[in-house]
Amino acid sequence: MRKLTVSELGRIDVEQFRNSRKLPLTIILDDVRSLYNVGSVFRTSDAFRVERIILCGITATPDNSLVEIHKTALGAEESVEWVYSNDCAAVVKELGEKGYTTIAVEQVEGSVKMDELRIDPAASYALVLGNEVKGVNQNVVDLCKMSLEIPQYGTKHSLNVSVTAGLVIWEFYKQLKELL
Hints:
This protein is of the alpha/beta class. It has helices spanning 6-9, 14-19, 35-47, 66-73, 76-79, 88-97, 138-143, 161-176, and strands at residues 23-30, 50-56, 82-85, 101-105, 112-113, 125-129, 146-149. Strands 3-2-1-6-4-7-5 form a 7-stranded parallel sheet. Strand 1 (23-30), helix 3 and strand 2 form a beta-alpha-beta unit.
């Protein structure tokens, strides 16, 4: 086996990305503290053509923290559309009113296990990922239509937020890739 060169991978450029068809998926980061986690979510969102990222609360934005976010995003902060809002609950409420299926990625009563998730290709989705320690704020969970949980079988009760984003974005991509 021989590793492929960057030119052999045939990646699209930023302009082509911006004009390409996207997954009907918005990622909402609520009070994510680590700039490296934010950058990692950008990079994963670019890889699977996520529609946009909404950065909320204390979550840093690329225009204010470019160096740290760029270390993990590697330029994806230029390709993936993003906006900032101070109020995550207002964002979730507004997206719900616009017809998005709003989903808290959190361990709650009645959550849907990711291996049981069935995604409607005709719908648009917004996934809320929360703070590295506290998770998604309860008032935001209360506004979401459902909660998605990644089953875990070890001794720890949670995954890093960027790892979680990667897993759930991959699941949406697997089920929706025909849309791209």
